[in-house]
Amino acid sequence: MESSKEVDVQESQLIREWTAEAREQARLETLRALLLRQAANRFNGALTDEDRQMISKQDSSSVLDEWLDAVVQATDYAAFRAVLRR
Amino acid sequence: MRNGSLAGNIADWLALVGRVPSNRYQGDIFRIAPVFAELAGTVREWRQALKEVDMLESQVIKEWTKEAREEERVLVLRATLLRLAEKRFKGELTDEDRQMMSTQDSPLVLSEWFNAAVDSDDYATFLAVLRR
Questions:
Q1: Which residues of chain B are within 8 Å of residue A30 when distances are taken between CB atoms?
Q2: Are A71 and A38 in contact (CB under 8 A)?
Q3: pTM
Q4: Is B59 within 8 Å of chain A by CB?
């Protein structure tokens, strides 16, 4: 242990890693919740449990972004589903 | 703490920190511990041990990272709203609209604006919700 080493709590490597993981988790949770809500609003009862499962398990924020765009731009549920299954 | 039982020690430690009544003190304790791990050169062991503990599910860590998670949530909502609004109302968004969206701190308001961006038939309807 280096007794003279300066201790900077904010710069702790582990703290930075934990915060980054927590942020990533929050990012995914926010996108999934937005997507589930918007898809449910747009396609009423058409959304299946399988669709919800796919959305809830997706762990890429760029894929979730694409699916969000699809919710807004798809002309109908079939078009959205095609993007979801691509 | 020694490497052999580090995972068990960390699990015990998280449980003990969870019993500290003040969230503020929990946060303080939590911020200090990893610094000692780094000074002791046991970062790699801590990282591995915490994977086993499933640290993101720990209430202590959830509380401690609450601020970062809430900040990230607002950033994601703002970015998603801006991206969507730019797509939906091509060329109509003003710098003032962008500024409003980029500086809004309430997740609730941002969610309302997001709904309006999706549901509004035209820019004027969306703008009315934005300026409400």
A1: 72-73, 76-77
A2: yes
A3: 0.75
A4: no
